[in-house]
């Protein structure tokens, strides 16, 4: 009664096969993640330090309400950039979470970064 369902085990086994059989997907993901992080920093967004190839990128906003508002505005523009705020993170460290995947194109990454920059700048005025 406490074992994982067979479908979950099959999905995990299939995921391992993708990892072993398609190493280019991991290389692409690392490159796209580094690209996104670099572009965010070039646009003067406060990116929390992490390895450049990490596909999870946190943009620090500090203020809970601004993080929620920016997340909502990004959703209105078609981008899923969730807010992370207390109690999940320490008070004063609210952030946005960007998750890069290997299927994201560089143009898509540029679009989300430029939109995020514009939305954050409009919120801070």
Give an overview in words.
The chain has helices at 6-21, 23-42, 64-76, 106-123, and strands spanning 56-62, 83-84, 94-99. With 125 residues, it is α+β, with helices and mostly antiparallel strands. The N and C termini lie far apart (55 Å). 54% of the residues lie in helices and 12% in strands. Strands 1-3-2 form a three-stranded antiparallel sheet. The chain has four helices and three strands.
Described by the principal axes of the CA atoms, the overall outline is globular
Which sheet architecture does the biggest sheet show? 3 strands, antiparallel
Q: Strands across the major sheet, in which order?
A: 1-3-2
- Fraction of residues in helices? 40-55%
By DSSP, the count of extended strands is 3
Give me the oligomer status.
Answer: single chain
**Number of helix segments?**
4
Q: Regions with pLDDT < 50 over 5+ consecutive residues?
A: none
Radius of gyration from the alpha-carbon trace, in angstroms: 17 Å
């Amino acid at each position: 009664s406490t074992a994982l369902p067979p479908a979950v085990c099959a999905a995990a086994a299939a995921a391992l096969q993708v990892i072993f059989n398609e190493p280019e997907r991991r290389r692409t993901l690392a490159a796209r993640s580094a690209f996104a992080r670099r572009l965010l920093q070039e646009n003067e967004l406060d990116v929390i330090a992490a390895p450049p190839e990490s596909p999870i990128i946190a943009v620090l906003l500090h203020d809970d309400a601004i993080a929620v508002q920016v997340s909502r505005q990004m959703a209105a523009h078609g981008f899923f950039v969730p807010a992370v705020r207390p109690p999940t993170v320490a008070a004063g460290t609210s952030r946005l979470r960007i998750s890069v995947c290997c299927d994201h194109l560089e143009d898509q990454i540029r679009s989300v970064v430029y939109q995020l920059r514009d939305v954050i700048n409009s919120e801070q005025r």
